[in-house]
Amino acid sequence: MAVTHSSPEPSGSAGPESPATPSPAEPTTSAAQTSASAPETTAALEPEAPLEADVQPGGDDDNDSAIDAGSVLSTDTLTPSILEYRQLHGRTYPNAKTGDYWGPNDERQSEGLDLIHNALTLLLNDRLFLAPLRQDDPGRVLDIGTGTGIWALDFADEFPSADVIGTDLSPMQPSWVPPNLRFEVDDCLLEWTWPENHFDFVHARCMYGSIPDWTEMDTKILRHLKPGGYFEHVEIGCQGLSDHIELGPDHVFDTWAQVFYEAGEKTGRPFTICLDGEMAKHMRAAGFVDIQETKLKLPINSWAKDPKLKKAGTYFHYALERDMEGFSMFVCTQVLGWSKEEVHVMVARMRQAIRTKSLCPYITVNVVVGRKP
């Protein structure tokens, strides 16, 4: 059974045309076409040089690039105890009894997460992963912190021979799924019930601020991977950057990043895992080998000239515009002691900054792949 899991498609004059037909310089490669060797270099996977802008850096081409989008899949109910969500400023958060997470789990957040998935898939040149998996049969696959389940759904559709499990603290995934996929409510910090040497591939994405000890987590993942199995860890940076405009130390991008870094220090669940070298360091300490780290630049809004990056930036911008309060309200009010009004002031400054195309803003995305010996 093939199930298509769709996300809101950006529309309106501010959004770029779909790069469904890429230029010859940017071949589109699906997950099923990825070879066992390292992925070829493409325009969407060249992070070192500054991205070419489609606007004048520092100019006045700062129209709001936010876009309209419809609702995505709603979640189905399970048991009352699991759905006893915490309420905060009109938003819902995972039940503290089943785990502790700083992000909301409501429909508004789900829409943003699906848009971010679309942006990251475009950034990887239409791939779901970079690990050199077997294309005929990837085997048993685990997606930790699956969120809305969109990555697991896309993977299960792409590889019908794979046996895919997606786990999360919240049952915010759809019930209609491919027969080779199932979702489980689970706290990855607890002891795993699966056998050791069980999975062929483990995937984790956007887990910053959730794990107290990444070396311990990576060791657990290693233990449950088969020999020769792969772990791919993807994190989005907290710090907004620009290669074209010098941003001062008091810029709101720096304020935003420091909020999360400080909150991570207080909770003991660091957000700094997204920084260069951190994921690879913990993988190495856990015992992974053949570790490869890929650093990419994800535009914030539609300033990039490359059509695929332009669309990825548009997706990412709308995700932030849609729910920047959701990303920041819990850590600011519950961890750092801010008032709700103070959060709104920072969010307003952030919205103004990410709408400013002439800043050519972007964030880094780090993808680290390791193999179990």
TrEMBL record:
Gene Ontology MF terms in the entry: methyltransferase activity
UniProt region (Disordered), positions on chain: 1-72
Keywords associated with the record: Methyltransferase, Transferase
Coiled-coil features, chain-numbered ranges: none
Biased composition (Low complexity): 1-18, 26-53
Any one Gene Ontology BP term: methylation
UniProt-listed CDD domains: AdoMet_MTases (cd02440)
Family stated for the protein in its record: Belongs to the methyltransferase superfamily. LaeA methyltransferase family.
Protein name: Methyltransferase family protein
